[in-house]
Amino acid sequence: MQLDDFRFHHTLRVRWAEADMQGIVFNGHYLTYADVGITEYFRAMGQTYSGETGVNGSDFFAVRTLLEYRSPARFDELLDVHVRIARLGNSSMQFLIGIYRAEELLVNGEIVYVHADQSSRRPSPIPASFRSAVSEFEKVLPEGA
C-alpha cells in the first residue's frame, strides 16, 4: 500500500487518553481513527452522515473490519488516515485504510460496509447518486464497479 494509492487523507493528533503508560497507542483506537477517516471521506465527497437520515437518506453498516499493525504510534504524534473505496458492489463497498506517520505506514486494513434500508436494516442497492459521487470523487472507479 503506497501513499499515492489514495486521493484522500485526514490528519489527526494522538490524544493522551489513546496511549498507554509508555505513550504507545492502544490497538483498539486505530479502528476509531479509521472510522474518523471514513466520516471525513464522506464529508469531502459531499455525502455527510446524520444519525437520523444516514448518508443522504442511505444508511451503511460495517460488516467486516481487518487491521494489520506494522509499527506503533505514540502520544502527540500527527497521523494521516488515508481512505479510498476499492470496490463498490451492488449493496456493499470496501474501504482501504492506511494510517501513516509522515511516510511510514503504521497500520493498514479494510472495512466493508453494507448499504441497508433504514427501517428494515436489510441490504439494499447502493443509490445511483452515491455511486456517481464516489466515481466523481475517486475518478478511477467506473460506474457500478
TrEMBL record:
Keyword entries, A-Z: Hydrolase
Highest taxon of source: Bacteria
One GO MF term attached to the UniProt entry: fatty acyl-CoA hydrolase activity
Regions annotated as coiled coil: none
Domain Thioesterase: 22-106
CDD domains, sorted: 4HBT
PANTHER family the record matches: 4-HYDROXYBENZOYL-COA THIOESTERASE FAMILY MEMBER, NOVEL THIOESTERASE SUPERFAMILY DOMAIN AND SAPOSIN A-TYPE DOMAIN CONTAINING PROTEIN (0610012H03RIK)
Family stated for the protein in its record: Belongs to the 4-hydroxybenzoyl-CoA thioesterase family.
Name used for this protein in its record: Acyl-CoA thioesterase
DNA-binding keyword on record: no
InterPro entries attached to this UniProt entry: 4-hydroxybenzoyl-CoA_TE, HotDog_dom_sf, Thioestr_dom, YbgC/YbaW
Native species: Halopseudomonas laoshanensis
Keyword Hydrolase: yes
Pfam families associated with the record: 4HBT
